[in-house]
From TrEMBL:
Pfam families: AAA_16 (PF13191). SUPFAM superfamilies: P-loop containing nucleoside triphosphate hydrolases (SSF52540). This is ATP-binding protein. One of its GO terms (molecular function) is ATP binding. InterPro entries: AAA_16 (IPR041664), Cyt_c-like_dom (IPR009056), P-loop_NTPase (IPR027417). It comes from the Bacteria. Residues 1-22, 98-120 are annotated as: Disordered. Keywords: ATP-binding, Heme, Iron, Metal-binding, Nucleotide-binding. PROSITE patterns: CYTC. Residues 102-116 have a biased composition (Gly residues). PANTHER family: ATPASE DOMAIN-CONTAINING PROTEIN, DNA-BINDING PROTEIN-RELATED. Residues 180-280 form the Cytochrome c domain. It comes from Nocardioides kribbensis.
Length: 417
């Protein structure tokens, strides 16, 4: 089949040609936007799931929905080695620019302030500049004094105390007030949210709590690994009520078929029913795998419709590409001791599935079982386990258990062995 017309798009965060199986999340977010626009109380949103289930794609789709309503939006990706101030400042700067200039009114947050719309914007940008530069000392280098594109002078005494929780509450209150005066809203999108530092997580929860109580039109939409709710809960006990949580999982058979068939139909091609069944068996319904296998099968198949035989021929090549780009790139980041721990997890899952359960359906394994499999004391494996968690290769959803962040990673490790 013509590779130029291949519709499938395997890529990190790249939107597939058919965003199947996410209608409920998109509809829920539309309700959130409408309620906030009408001044109704609404919680911020957190998406959780394994890697490869399309969290980033969905996050971008939600952002597009906010943009279509005229909201100011900004997005950042959290990193373990970076504090929140500067990336959040960049995201909020973009959001303020997208809001435009409001008409004359009161100051940010509804209180007294500059009278004209331009003065309000300058005030908020000045507060944003103060917030961003607070981490830089008086004699900091120019590159550490973040203020790209902000001509407004820093506003002293606002969002610059040095306490991230106080500063973030003040900053988001001012940005939310600006949005309210403009008759719009602001949405901040945070990917890899589990990588925020403990102080930043606590500050973000406190700020969302304050914004929710004040009724300002500002929401946070986060995405992260399955243990993100536990990270938030450990920071603030009320986070369980502060956010609306949505677990993003693999697609149902019906949605997976639509993700494959709709793009093929647009290119005057099709799958046989047996071909679709073979694709679901191969991909497990995980969106990234659907795109990866779909692209390879399309290139290998001699003609339409694509059959189960075409899937069988293409599967080894698709698996080789995944082994290098999806699994291998992550495995290479691990040290020898960490790789041993990963293999121990895979072997422990095999032992757990000995009773007849599909080994790839095994979620988490007990850390004690990993230690038994490797013939070592659990305490001696703690450094490797902690390092793997920091690298985002494994996560702990509950005490004493550990799981891969990547679906089918155990299968990959067994095949490598």
């Amino acid at each position: 089949m013509d590779p130029i017309r291949n519709p499938y798009a395997p890529g990190a965060g790249q939107r597939p040609p058919e965003l199947a199986g996410r209608d409920e999340e998109l509809a829920t977010f539309e309700v959130v936007l409408e309620r906030v626009a009408r001044g109704r109380p609404e919680r911020s949103l957190v998406l959780t799931g394994l890697r490869g289930v399309g969290k980033t794609v969905l996050l971008n789709a939600l952002r597009s929905a906010a943009v279509r309503r005229g909201w100011g939006t900004g997005k950042l990706e959290a990193r373990p080695d970076q504090r929140l101030r500067r990336p959040l400042s960049s995201a909020l700067h973009q959001a303020v620019r997208e809001l435009g200039v409001p008409g004359p009114g009161g100051g940010p947050g509804g209180g007294p302030g500059p009278g004209s719309g331009e003065e309000q914007v300058d005030h908020v940008l000045g507060v944003l500049r103060s917030f961003a530069q607070r981490d830089a000392g008086a004699d900091a280098r120019l590159k550490d004094r973040w203020s790209p594109g902000i001509d407004a002078p820093a506003v002293r005494g606002r969002a610059d105390s040095g306490d991230i929780e106080i500063d973030l509450v003040e900053l988001l209150t001012d940005v939310g007030g600006l949005a309210a005066d403009a008759g719009k809203g602001v949405a901040v999108f945070i990917d890899e949210m589990q990588d925020l530092g403990p102080d930043d997580v606590s500050a973000l929860c406190a700020a969302c709590h304050e914004i929710s109580q004040s009724g300002l039109p500002l929401i946070v939409v986060g995405a992260g690994l399955p243990h993100l709710p536990a990270v938030l809960s450990a920071s603030k006990s009320y986070s369980e009520r502060l956010f609306r949580y949505a677990r993003i999982d693999r697609l149902t058979r019906e949605a997976a078929d639509r993700a494959l068939s709709a793009p093929a139909t647009d290119e005057d091609a099709a799958f046989t029913e047996a071909g679709l069944a073979a694709m679901y068996d191969a991909t497990g319904g995980y969106p990234y795998f659907i795109q990866a296998y779909g692209k390879t099968v399309w290139d290998v198949a001699p003609r339409s419709p694509i059959t189960e035989d075409d899937v069988a021929v293409a599967a080894p090549e698709a698996e080789r590409e995944l082994a290098v780009g999806f699994f291998g790139s992550r495995y290479e980041r691990a040290t020898p001791a960490e790789r041993e721990y990963l293999r121990g997890m895979a072997d422990a899952a095999v032992a757990l599935a000995a009773g007849g359960t599909d080994v790839d359906a095994v979620g988490s394994v007990a850390t004690a079982d990993v230690a038994t499999t490797l013939g070592k004391k659990p305490q001696s494996l703690s450094p490797a386990r902690d390092a793997l968690m920091k690298k985002g290769l494994v996560y702990s959803g509950e005490r004493g258990r550990i799981a891969f962040t990547v679906p089918h990673f155990g299968r990959y490790l067994r095949e490598q062995a």
